Amino acid sequence: MPTPERAFADRPAPVMSDREVARVIERHSAFLAGRAGGARAALKFVNLTGMDLGGQDLSDADLTGAKLFSASLVEAKLVSASLFGADLRIANMTRADMNKCDLRGACLRGAILTGSNMVEADLRDGTLMRHRPGESDELVTFDEEPLATELTCAIAKGADLTNARVQNGFVMQTDLTDAVLRGSSFSGANLANAIMTGCDLSGADFSRANLSGVQLQGAVLSGVSFAGADLSKAVLIGAIIDQTDFDGAKLEGTVRARRIEETGQSLQHLVSEHGVWVDSAAKRGRRADLSALDLSALDLRSVNLSAALMNCVTLFDADLEVAALAMADLSLSDLRRAKLARSDLRGVNLDRATLTGADMKGALLGPMLIRSDKQQTWPASLFRARLANVDLSGADLTGARLREASLIGANLSDAKLTGADLSGADLTDANLEGADLEGALLTGAKGLTRH
Description:
- By secondary structure, the protein is largely without helices or strands.
- Helix content is 8%, strand content 5%.
- It has helices spanning 4-8, 18-33, 267-279, and strands at residues 129-132, 135-141, 258-259, 293-294, 368-371, 376-378.
- It is globular.
- It holds the Pfam family Pentapeptide.
């Protein structure tokens, strides 16, 4: 199956001037508003290379086969637009709204899609056709075979591809960090060496896909189908694997969390040496590195792991009540249903960690004093942390960084959130009874009904 990049190389495309394009957009705006004189933007196969279309509303526009190489579509609105077979190589589509956009057979190689909305977008392969000049009734096919949509080397951090269809697409070496791919279909797609750290793939279909070398640290894989997929050398540490289908999948060389006994080390010894390291201000003992280990359901009550390295650790259902975890790195970790009541988590790094259903009543998540002479502090960081249905009642979250965190259904009653950064956080159905939000940053926060 040919890639769009090859097909676009010699494609003829009429060039439009800035003035002509501006007139088309003006009439399209009237069309969208239902005003007299309006007309849907018809930019089929037009050469718009390098053009600045940032912020324009091109919803429902016809850009089939258009050449938008290196164009700027920053914050453009392309809802239900047709970009079938379009050349979008190295285009900047940051925060563009492409909800239900038709991108079949499009080439987005090297495009920037950071923060874009591609919910229900169609990125399947497609056959590009056009009228032969002078013979309007005859359609000419550019390729004998359908074009596969290409997202190779693109940057799509935080993009929303919920329910998108990307079957058979080329998505190699693409950065999809923090992207939302819930319910999407990547069946038969090539995602070799893609970066999918922290992605939410819940319910997605990756059957027969090439995921060799893909990075899935901290990703949510609940209900995902990897049936017949190639996951060789994929990194799955810290990933949430729940009702995930690996039937017939190739798993050679896959990197997954290991139990402590598999490493030949003693957890008791590691914790003891770490205690010496903490008490001696790093002069003796050894700092504990529990990264990528599976410590599920272990009894770790009152343990001292302050400043420990615990990136991508699995602590599902573990008991960490009253534990000392100040300044520890728990980013991308699995802490579902963990017991963390009254634990010391000051200055902790819980970025992209999953704590769904955890008990954090009375936990300390405020700033850590690191320079007493200058009153210098280090805040707890929970960027994009998954805190759905977590019990944080009475917890101290003073100055905590909760930007874009999911707090759906969380219990924050009587919690102290003074000066906390909750910008972009989802507080839908959260209990904020008695919570102190004085000075909290709430820009873009969702689900707030009061305060």
